[in-house]
Amino acid sequence: MTIWLQNNEKYDRVASLDPASGVFGEHSRSALDQESPVKTDGIYSILSGAMAAVFAWDDAVFVCLGTSTAKLSGETKVSVDGPPSSRKLSIEDGNGIVAQHQYSLEPSQLPIPGDTTPFVEDEDFDFGLLMSNIASSDQRQAVLLGID
Asked: How many whole angstroms separate alpha carbon 146 and alpha carbon 104?
């Protein structure tokens, strides 16, 4: 089964993902034309070459990093450590580390100094941080599942 994910930075970019196998492919909405998905099941970003995603599938919320996928539960922890030039994204479950990845934020992903936009937060610039925040919020997970 294939699900569709929306790129977090560019509306024209979507990804097809088979959650069972981890097979992932990026696509342009305009190139897909009539095949472009109307509804997506989650969001993704490419962090220093690795695909990172949060999505709803099979009545649960999952996080994916590279080819590793973990179902969010009370035992799942997603964390981000380090400065913008050397971030470390980690996914752990009750059995230990599921996946880790080093990435750095591109200059275009850094917050704009002095930006007074009231609704902009650090997670808007750092997808790893967004993943961590969703993983730690039952309310945000409910939105992904469509039950909010």
From this structure: 32
Amino acid making up residue 17: L
Helix, strand, or coil here: 23? strand
Q: Which amino acid, residue 81?
A: D
How far is 95 from 78, CA to CA, in rounded Å?
14
6's CB contacts (< 8 A; 6+ apart) are 13, 14, 40, 42, 43, 44
- Whose tokens are 């099979």? That residue is 58
Residue with tokens 């069972």, as numbered in its chain? 20
Burial annotation 96-118 (CB, 10 A radius, 16+ → b, else e): eebbebebebeeebeeeeeeeee
Q: How many CA atoms lie within 13 A of 133 on its CB side?
A: 11
pLDDT in tens, 84-118: 889 999 999 989 999 999 999 876 555 566 766 65
